[in-house]
Amino acid sequence: MTRSNNKIALFDMDGTLADYDGQLLKDLKKIASDHEPEPRLYSGVSYLEARRHVITSQAGWFLNLPKLQLGWDILQIAKEIGYSISILTKGPSSKHIAWSEKVEWCNRHLSEYIDGVIIAHDKGLVYGAVLVDDWPDYIDGWLQHRPRGVVIMPASEHNVGYSHPNVIRYDGTNLDEIRRRMRERFAAS
Ligand SMILES: [Mg+2]
Q1: In the chain, is it the N or the C terminus that has fewer CB atoms within a 10 Å radius of its CB?
Q2: Cα of 36 to ligand 1 centre, how many Å?
Q3: Residue 67: which of 11, 139, 10, 2 has the closest Cα?
Q4: Looking at the domain assignment, is residue 61 inside a domain?
Q5: 137 CA → ligand 1 middle, Å
Q6: What is the Å distance from ligand 1's center to 17 Cα?
Q7: How far apart are the C-alpha atoms of 129 and 132, rounded to whole Å?
């Protein structure tokens, strides 16, 4: 299915359409000792990072990630407006099995929505009118070359307080604003 005349919306997977953080936290708690503090993601604690690596290296881990509703709300709007939707995900450099599982996840859940899957090391290289991504560094890299690009950022703990005029943070309560900004970008040249 190709809708080549339509504007492109790029969707991230982990933290956007797939609940990477939620599943990871659940798995970290499962193997935590009663004597350690509650695990916190992205806190730079080395034993948690090591456990994260072990957890996410399991065969089937990426394939079985649950959906994240915030991202799916935005996906539905992109489809309604008529965007050509592609997945833009970063391939973990040391976990090649994850690449195929991510593609399989897309085939399972997204075949009615998407025109393609792009696995990139640098998301900044990929063109789109809209990017939907939760990770501030990737957003900054992508916007650097796209002054008119619009970014929708699904809210999470690691992007609290992020602010940029082209970025709208979606926390589940401001769907009308998301729809309006995505419509405006779609109508613009
Ligand atoms: Mg992400």
Answers
A1: C
A2: 27
A3: 11
A4: no
A5: 10
A6: 8
A7: 10
